[in-house]
Amino acid sequence: MWLVDYFSTYLYGLKYVAVFIAICIFVSSLDDLLIDVVYWVRYTWRHFVIFKRHPFMDAKALYATPEQPLAIMIPAWKETGVIGNMAQLAASTLDYENYHIFVGTYPNDPDTQKDVDEVCARFPNIHKVVCARPGPTSKADCLNNVLDAIFQFEQRANLEFSGFILHDSEDVISSMELRLFNHLVNKKDLIQVPVYPFERQWSNFTSMSYLDEFAEVHGKDIVVREAIAGQVPSAGVGTCFSRRAVLALVADGDGIAFDTQSLTEDYDIGFRLKEKGMKEIFVRFPVIDTSKKTWQLTRVLGKAFRASQVICVREFFPDTVQTAVRQKSRWIIGIVFQGYVTHRWSKNWIINYFLWRDRKGVITNFVSFIATIILLQLGLLWLYQNYWQDAYQFMSIFESNTLLKDLLWINLFFMANRMVQRIYFVTTYYGIFQGLLSIPRLFWGNYINFLANWRAIRQIMMEGNPHRVAWDKTTHDFPSIGGENRSRKMIGQILIERNLLTSEQLNEALIHKTHGIKIGTWLVHQGMITSEDFARALAEQGEVDMQNIDAYQIDPSLIKAFPENIALRYAVLPIKNEDGAMMLASESVLDPISLAALSRKLKSKISYVIVPHGQVTVGLRHWYSRKKQQEDPRTLLEIAKNTGRISAEKAAELWAYFTARQFLFAEVLCALGRIDNASLAAVLLQHEKTDETLGSFLVSRNIVSQETLDEALALQKKLQPSMHKLISEAAR
Fold first, then answer.
1. CA angle 687, 119, 157 (to 5 degrees)
2. Residue ranges making up the domain that contains 677
3. 3-state helix, strand, coil in the chain (%, to 5)
4. Does the residue 107 lie in any domain?
5. Which of residues 364, 387, 420 is at a domain's end?
6. Under 8 Å between Cβ of 326 and 255
7. Are the beta carbons of 588 and 619 closer than 8 angstroms?
8. In Å, what is the CA distance from 147 to each residue of 107, 131, 231, 379?
9. Are 226 and 281 in contact (CB under 8 A)?
10. Residue 516 domain-assigned (yes or no)
11. How far is CA 94 from the centre of its chain?
12. Please, what sign has the CA dihedral across residues 635, 640, 641, 642?
């Protein structure tokens, strides 16, 4: 009997704990119910009134806004095997051209640097930034280094980025994301798109609990927050800041935009910008492919037709309890404890309400876990009392308390509502199977949040100050993109493998080549390899075919249909158009960004071949040059042949020699070191919209001086043979 007495005493104490926990849940649930009511009232009004008057905006409207320069900032510490694939996939799939990716690395992380270097070699708009201090520092510190590198690049390329976009190394970016940011960046200062975690095995409750939380928060809570308060917390990924916002942050931080003492600098920035009166928006913009009959499929799976196709960020989240607890404890310290120190209660009661919602987790995470433990005990008591013969009526201790009974019934309703809301928002994007699984995952998520809360408090107690807690990086996974990231072979290596050069000859060439001319061009110019040899090496490097062309024999109707600005911008010539697919000729390997841009601009499938050096150059001068030649070299050669000054065989020989030694002005500038390839690509995008010659454009925009222009033109003239002189020498 003494055991029964002790146990009864314990249950009496548990009853009062249960009353207290039930009151806490009731208060928190009222808060959540308010958000639910606002969301569904707003949803109903917009569905039956607003959208009846104003149809949904079509994704095609995003193309009407001219492409502005956008910069993507990616911090990377110990991201080998992740950052390279992420950058490659982004650069290959984004439906946009006028953007650059800046990856922040650390001097003591050579493996990540190597990964980024390999991608930079293939994509001219990806730039490696090496932070000033060894890592790991913090995400904010890395972003500050990246931002400084962006400003330096702006000076070199004489451009100003309109938007600055945050992403992590594990992000998979929607192809239309930059189109959306480009459309809004002149109207809004902080633009946030939803984050939807990738699915793992259904049994991985840890990773999949993130799926449930983000589906509801980014499907409902942030929508209501933006509608009521006009304030949007950045998720740290899929966030675009306007130039005005970034400059304001830099000025506010005395040259430093991101708070290096904060573990959640992205959350912090949303409030800083709101205090400055800047406009913030959370955008759920669907891109619907009307050519595919997806409606029936999405209905069967339970997905919402529009909500399941929104522009969003996809990524994998931690799949072990330990890594999830580490990540969430960092969020709790940054948002709750550091956030309270940095952003105390304001004079705006609406902002205070959402600050309360952000911070109440430090209480409700404990409350939810304790409530689960109490619920488990009450369930066992109920089973004992109903299925054990002559059982003690322990449940009467709780049933006698009217307040507790009423609270339990009310909270049961609230809990049912929570489950319905969770199922709905998970189902709209992931389907009904994941929606139903979100219920058992709800309890597992409570357990992880409890552990994260406990770890966060323990870390703060150990350090004595939330700002002293060190940045705790999360290990990232990246989805397979169909093969390993391949580094590009160097041209010299290919020439050696083809037995066209020895290592000694290549080293000699690198030492003695003429300043202002690239190594491949110089090798051809010196007769060490033929232009065909060099073209085959380039074709192998780019994994495309090689062929010879006569640019003067291209069908004039094909040239007429091919815009001049595109031909000069990408240094390509159209050579064939079959079954709606355009084949182009290029003297260099075209990166996937340029190929995708060409396909969009020409509204056609694109393929290309590498042709020997000079063949595209003479073709561009013949068909498109904005500065017309005084005398066409081909015409001079034909006259010399027809008048008998030289033979037909000699004429063909001279033309091959002349062509192989022609090169574009932009190549000279890059080889002279006056402008790098990445800056040149940005400059050419600006130049494409003008009628000026490239040289005049560069000088007028102060990208190069008149002296540099004259130097490059003089070197180009010196290295390129004159057809007059070649004919005269051959006729002697």
1. 25
2. 628-732
3. 60, 10, 30
4. no
5. 364
6. no
7. no
8. 17, 11, 24, 56
9. yes
10. no
11. 9
12. positive
